[in-house]
User: Which sequence fits this backbone?
């Protein structure tokens, strides 16, 4: 398989800066949440610096320590961290615009906030400030203070229990490719009522709370209450956007549902944990490989705003994150070329946010990729 020694050049004209912030707060369940966040942002010059390190080696090692990976991957190599990024640590914020719009990225369960480096860098190069959070218990990361946080054993065990649950497996065996809307919605309802999903809803709700807290933190940075390069530079009045991969897609939908500061969201090959009966009241886009429509049909069935469902063929689940470039094991990759997959995900994501946040004429329905089909567009009830 083809290997890469560097991520692709960003699509936009801005040089991309990256900075890391540690935050902590007490969540609604009274747990102390100690998080980190990588912020990608537009800059005018790399200032002669070397590119940012992709992922800390200690974080990479933690991936192989997760019980779910020990059991299912059996020490198979999945990805490498020996790759050059296209962003630079702690640059000055670009002076080309007074303020810049804000997006959030949520990685998949058990993953790392750095797993979205390519899409975060692409979006920042076009003028967005993009925040990727390390979520306690459900992801892995190294804080600036040096402490390491891995996905918890409970999270890994719950993930394994979900994978092996007889009721889930029985339902999965009945999933149809390209089902009619009624069949898909009923299958989604049946899946969401499984007792095994209760724990995942709790994890996703805590991740959504993390996002809302970090959004609060950004408001403090913008106001100058906390000192940073972002004082008076973040554009909030048009709304923020959020995109999540896999488990992170459910978090993105919850954030849209619960926080009016967010204008729209995207799920990349994600499900609908905790969204039974939820009207997001926000435009939402789903990119997925079939038969995943069965896992998220309830979102559009309930959403009073536009919901776009795009089916993408010849892809694997991890193709929606950086592993499309860092993979060292072809069994975890789909059939599409890595650059084509990156262009596809970035185009749909950017066009969607440009339209619903920046009010540009850009449209996801105007994009044309072989094997990408609009299954359904709902909304405006």
Assistant:
């Amino acid at each position: 398989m083809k290997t890469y020694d560097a991520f692709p050049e960003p699509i936009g004209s801005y040089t991309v800066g990256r900075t890391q912030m540690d935050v902590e707060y007490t969540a609604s369940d009274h747990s102390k949440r100690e998080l980190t966040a990588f912020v990608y942002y537009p800059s005018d010059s790399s200032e002669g610096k070397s590119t940012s390190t992709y992922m800390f080696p200690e974080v990479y090692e933690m991936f192989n320590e997760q019980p779910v990976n020990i059991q299912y991957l059996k020490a198979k190599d999945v990805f490498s961290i020996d790759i050059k990024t296209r962003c630079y640590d702690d640059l000055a914020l670009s002076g080309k615009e007074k303020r810049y719009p804000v997006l959030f990225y949520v990685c998949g369960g058990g993953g790392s906030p750095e797993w979205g480096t390519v899409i975060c860098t692409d979006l920042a190069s076009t003028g967005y400030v993009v925040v990727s959070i390390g979520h306690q218990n459900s992801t892995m990361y190294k804080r600036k203070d040096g402490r390491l946080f891995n996905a918890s054993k409970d999270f890994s065990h719950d993930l394994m229990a979900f994978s092996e649950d007889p009721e889930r497996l029985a339902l999965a065996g009945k999933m149809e490719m390209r089902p009619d809307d009624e069949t898909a919605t009923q299958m989604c309802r049946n899946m969401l009522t499984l007792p095994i999903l209760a724990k995942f809803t709790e994890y996703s709700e805590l991740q959504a709370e993390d996002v809302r807290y970090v959004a609060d933190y950004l408001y403090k940075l913008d106001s100058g209450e906390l000192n940073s390069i972002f004082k008076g530079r973040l554009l909030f009045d048009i709304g923020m956007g959020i995109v999540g991969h896999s488990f992170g897609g459910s978090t993105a939908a919850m954030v849209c549902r619960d926080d009016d500061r967010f204008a729209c969201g995207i799920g990349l090959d994600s499900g609908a944990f905790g969204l039974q009966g939820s009207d997001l009241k926000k435009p939402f886009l789903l990119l997925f490989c079939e038969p995943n429509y069965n896992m998220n049909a309830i979102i559009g069935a309930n959403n009073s705003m536009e919901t776009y469902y795009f089916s993408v063929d010849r892809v694997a689940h991890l193709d929606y994150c950086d592993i499309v470039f860092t993979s060292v094991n072809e069994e975890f990759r789909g059939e599409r070329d890595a650059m084509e997959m990156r262009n596809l995900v970035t185009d749909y994501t950017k066009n969607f946010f440009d339209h619903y946040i920046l009010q540009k004429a850009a449209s996801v329905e105007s994009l044309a990729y072989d094997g990408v089909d609009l299954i359904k567009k709902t909304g405006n009830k």
Observations:
- The chain has eleven helices and 13 strands.
